[in-house]
Write a structure and sequence with these properties.
Hect, E3 ligase catalytic domain; two-stranded parallel ribbon; mainly alpha; 6 strands; 8% strand; 411 residues; two-stranded antiparallel ribbon
Length: 411
């Protein structure tokens, strides 16, 4: 029997508080003052290996459940506005944001600062980058990594922009003036925006897309358009390029019934080197994020989860954002009280490829395996996995790699 929604809302609030409390216990001050029942979790000289494992497991379990409940709220909202935001964390971030050195080292911090392990060890090279981060900084980074949704979106944007700014300095794109610093310069024809950009901004031609970019547009008559690119032409170019790349008529993306974009499962029929294109489009979106450029791209929720989520695969509950009719049919099958074999299903899926009907097996010999009451749950999950993951696995992987080429997915 599922929990009533009011109970579920109260449960998420308590679980959020417990998770935040565990972060404080996981990374204590050097000489913490805690109650006796917590001392075994935070004092090295009194903590046994078994207790460390126990507290670490509790932390992981709470965070995992909290993420699942938050994901459920994203798909079908059941919590009031502002429910997930912690005012305490927001105030801490606003007053004491992580230093640039700490932000740059956040990927390395994970191997040094594990919950309830209190003896981090740094190499000489790492210590030369600066002093170890403070307890507040480590707690903040842990929250941003494990349960970022308790921090207000605008606060997370500020942290992201700080990371980008530091990275720009490292790439010399803000260390000098826009017109005189190292930059990428390209000439593109307005009528062939995508084709020219795909060629000239390939990884082979421009491996460092983090550099500043200057664009010269050529009109339909073959003449250079007037004006010097001080940043405005580039932003116009990138905005139009992304609109063109995500246009369903180009074939790389399709629209759900709610007019949301996701990778075309049958793109291989239209473009032979489609993986290179998804990698390129991912890079261009990464460049837009890197340059703080706002673009309107109505991406499907399940696709966004695959790109920025911890796992590339998503479960059947995301199917509602791709195909709500199929999702309802699978739920009907799950709750069907009659003889499932009467439905005449087997472990195959039928789809259309440019007017030609194709049949794919969900498991070996699936066409000869009927769906029964005993195996229908397996069938439901295999259908959802096929639609959400297997059909677009390569497309999403290439897109994600392209995005990560410009902006770190850790950010």
């Amino acid at each position: 029997m599922p929990f009533p929604l009011p109970t579920l809302v109260a449960m998420t609030m308590k679980l959020k508080e417990v998770s935040l409390g565990l972060v404080e216990l996981a990374f204590p001050d050097s000489r913490p003052i805690v109650k006796d029942q917590y001392r075994s979790a935070v004092c090295v000289d009194e903590t046994t290996h078994a207790n460390t494992i126990m507290w670490s497991h509790l932390f992981k379990a709470c965070v995992s459940l909290l993420r699942q409940l938050y994901g459920r709220d994203l798909r079908r909202s059941y919590c009031p506005d502002g429910h997930w935001i912690s005012q305490q964390v927001t105030m801490s971030l606003a007053m004491d944001r992580p230093s640039d050195a700490t932000l740059r080292r956040r990927s390395r911090l994970r191997q040094h600062y594990r919950p309830f392990h209190f003896e981090p060890a740094f190499t000489r090279e790492e210590l030369e980058e600066g002093p170890p981060p403070s307890t507040k900084e480590v707690r903040t980074l842990t929250i941003l990594k494990e349960i970022p949704f308790v921090v207000a979106f605008q606060e997370r944007v500020i942290v992201f922009q700080s990371l980008v700014l530091k990275d720009k300095v490292n790439h010399h794109s803000t260390a000098r003036t826009f017109l005189h610093g190292p930059a990428i310069s390209i000439i593109v024809r307005r009528n062939y925006l995508y084709e020219d950009a795909f060629d000239k901004l390939s990884p082979e031609n421009e491996p460092e897309l983090q550099l500043a970019m200057r664009v010269q547009l050529v009109n339909t008559m073959g003449l250079d358009e007037a004006g010097v690119d001080g940043g405005g032409v580039f932003r116009e170019f990138l905005s139009e390029l992304l609109k063109t790349a995500f246009d369903p008529n180009r074939g790389f993306f399709r629209l759900t019934k709610d007019n949301l974009l996701y990778p075309n499962p049958h793109v291989h029929l239209l473009h032979q080197n489609f993986l290179n294109h998804y990698y390129f489009i991912g890079r261009m979106l990464g460049k837009a994020l890197y340059e703080n450029l706002l673009v309107e791209l109505p991406l499907a929720e399940f696709f966004m989860s695959k790109v920025i989520g911890r796992h590339s695969d998503v479960d059947m509950h995301h199917l509602a954002s791709l195909d709500p009719v199929m999702y309802r049919n699978l739920l009907y099958l799950k709750n069907y009280e009659g003889d499932v074999t009467e439905l005449g299903l087997d472990f195959t899926v039928v789809h259309d490829e440019l007017g030609e009907t194709k049949v794919d097996e969900l498991k070996p010999n699936g066409s000869n395996i009927p769906v029964t009451s005993a195996n229908r749950i397996e069938y439901i999950h295999l259908v959802a996995d096929y639609k959400l993951n297997k059909q677009i696995k390569m497309q999403c992987s290439a897109f994600k790699q392209g995005l990560a080429n410009v902006v770190s997915l850790e950010w």
